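Q: What does the assembly look like in three dimensions?
Context provided by user:
Components: two
Sequences:
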Amino acid sequence: MNDDNNVEIEREESVKAGKWLKFRFWLKRFFTNPANIILVVFFVFLAFFIFYPLITLVYDTFAVSSVTETRYGVKMGELTGLWWYRMIASEYNTMYFWKPLGNSMLMSFLASIIAILYGGIVAFFITRTNMKGKSIISMIFVFPYIMPSWTLATFWKNFWQNPDIGSGTGGMVYNLTGLKVPEGMVYGLVPCAIVLGLHYAPFAYILIGGILRNMDANLEEAATILHASRFKIVRRITLPIVLPALMSTFLLVFSSSMSAYAVPQYLGSGRFYVLTTYMKSFLNQGYYGQGYIMGLVMILFGVAILVANQYVTGKRKSFTTVSGKSGQVSYINLGKAKWVVSVILIVLSIFFAVMPLITFALESCCVVAGDYSTLTLQYWISKTPTDAQNGLVGLFFEKQVWRAFGNSLLLSFLCAIIAGSSGVLIGYAVSRRRGTKLAKGVDSLAFLPYLLPSMALGGAFLTMTTIFGIGKSFFILVLVGAIKYLPMASRSGINAMLQLSGEIEEAAVIVGVPWWKRMVRIIFPIQKSTFISGYLLPFTSCMRELSLFVLLVAPSTTLMATLLDEWMLWWPQSANALNLLIIVTVLVINFAVNKLTGASIDKGVGG
Amino acid sequence: MPEIVLKNITKRWGNFVGVDNLSMTIEDRAFITLLGPSGCGKTTTLRMIAGLETPTEGLITIDGVTVFDSDKGINLPPQKRDVGFLFQNYALWPHMTVYKNIAFGLENLKWKKPEIEERVDELCKMLKIEQFKQRYPSELSGGQQQRVAIARTLAPRPKVLFMDEPLSNLDAKLRLEMRTELKRLHVDTDSTFVYVTHDQLEAMTLATKVCLMETGVMQQYDPPLVTYSLPNNLFVADFVGNPTMNFLDAKAERDKNGKLRINMYGIEAEMQTEDVFEMPVKPEGEENAQSDVNVVVGVRPEFLEIGSSGIQAKVHATLPSGMETTVKIAYGEQIFTSVVFGGVDYAVDEQIKVSFRGNGILLFDKFTGKRLCSGALKLAK
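A: Here is the predicted structure of the complete assembly.
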């Protein structure tokens, strides 16, 4: 009997041991696949660095975290619902919260409409009519989108400004004609919406134009054969088919405008506040809790918009373009109007692409700010402090500028390296383990930062700075930059890898090539250009980013864009000089990138 | 009744000639296929007749009405030509249901609602897509989409129907089925069909007449069986038929009795033919060709007989498909193809005897590629 029992127990133990052993074998097998290691590492890392700041952000909306905040009779370190009460329900709620929120939404709505109308019409003319000079228009037209977002805002100010308003200096129109436009044209909702609309019009053009160009021309021809008029074809066939793209463009421009900081900052002039600018001033004054609430609201909006976008583009009517013989498009004949249309579009595009640079150059050379009558180069080349009495020397010899320049370059470089390499690895791992839960998880985690508005993400990381004692260091800038640009890099990484069949790698596995060698010698070289664009997009975007970093910079880590932000209000000549320097740097890098690799910023995720 | 006439149609893009001086008459109620390798101008021709493309020069009339005339500056838009067009990728509107897709053209023609409903129902019944009326195109299979596209094209009862490779996106089995249906449809609808394809089997089986094109130039315009047995030139002979025709370089000359002597790689034979032609001579300046080769003998695989007498050769490979067997025959350096009815299996390198059979052996001019004659080929004893 005893023996029998012993045998039973032994058997049970061996089954248990077998299970444990099986699990160990499974674990070992699981981790011999490099794709799994990458996925696990990125899952843990991304989950931490995305959710942890978000959690601290939420926590800090209930916390008392600065001396300023104790003014309301709460103690440091306490938890309180006061901030939410003040923002949502108190007598100040209109001024503090609803008004900026309403402004943000109204501004974004108008900007989206302008962007879609302007960009969409240009896209239609270029893809569907026999207009002249298409290639030159499409080249210049995307210019404002390549330039930093505040370019048009500062241009607008330089152009319309007059002595009666704002800083009291004259702008280009005033200097040339003596015309004084009303203040509402220079500062406030209308100019903010117009400038944002103009900035995002190229983005709308790229999206809508892409759909129009890829749309099978047979769809329209089929309607022609069936006796539909030109107008009817546009109304019943073309528009409904591009409608999802239009909606999607609208939502993306809306979401980008909601998180725009530079434009309302430069054109709000202390009277017109939106969520981002109000959030910045809350945080600057130490009202962290209330600032973070605004950040949280922006994040909720961002997520809601992207969910809506997913719904719009994923409906049952959505179409798959069968690549047809689309080369044989019959263009609408504009007759003589084709010249008129081209001239108007070329003039408009050139105006918004080149005029900003001219005004920056002019403004930076004025002896008296805004007065073109006497010009000087001292703001560029003076080795002694300039006439502006602010202790700054000429731009080329100003230490602050060169330090900021160096910081910006280094930051962009590091962000690009980290985001780009992560993109390649994520792309590899996700495509190799496609369909598994882990791969899906990493894929969505890597895309998540796209939903978080830059300003709010910056705010979330600001809550982290105090916790690990890293403070406002350079490291936190690199971290937030790498995370914000990861979606671009991981998209191109995944796209590149999905085009590559697994057999190409397996052929190397068979002959015993180790994993790193397969990556470096086989996979990367084949999809070089797509991977490289995963490095370049973060680099160029980082060079012109302001809202992501503006909350996180310290004097020692000043970037070009944040330096401009500091100078803009008080020292117009130096600021304009710096502005020109930044834009030229961005353009040079962008064109160098285009020439070297053929990869273009216009093909990116955008936003 | 709709007869389509093309006169001297030319289409140029800059210096590139898409269609070169094409003239043809498409008879009423014909089923014409435009056949040729890709880029030969067949789709362009079709689109020019439909009005989707404008010819550079020439004249087109449909049913006696001039729809295009470069001299008089006439160019009717497609919607006024009263034609139907079936696109290769169907071009169904993704945002409209099947019903809407079919009804759209009728709405444009200002049909009354009950009439539209009746017509759509009729077509859906005919093409067996009644149950899909409220679906969107993305929810249909390829074959179903194809039927919807056909229904949409047929709805306004066009007198002429143009089809641009409509079956090339379907799988092999469905393609065969649809071929049969198209041929029925042609009879049922009582209209003229013009059909573009690069598949010679499709062209042969469907058409009442095949127009074979190469690089924008019409090569032959005849009923399919004529094109098959009497190809105008080497290109047509090579393009039509599967397995392809055997081509043997040869030297032809008349002996003193007037008999036509052929020498193919040392094989002596006599060509017996009624056709009269001039013996081709090597054009001046032509140096590279073998010294005395002046003709090409074209032999369809079914005319190459494996039997007890003839030329000594050996089996290179046998490809039996059940109903017939393709035998690759090696003679010296040359490989010939023969088709034998039934499943016969030869061993590789088996010694066999080969001879020519029937009256369908062809002789082509080596230099111009033109057909000289057809007849029987008897091996010299």
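Follow-up: Residues 189 and 257 of chain B are 58 Å apart (CA to CA).
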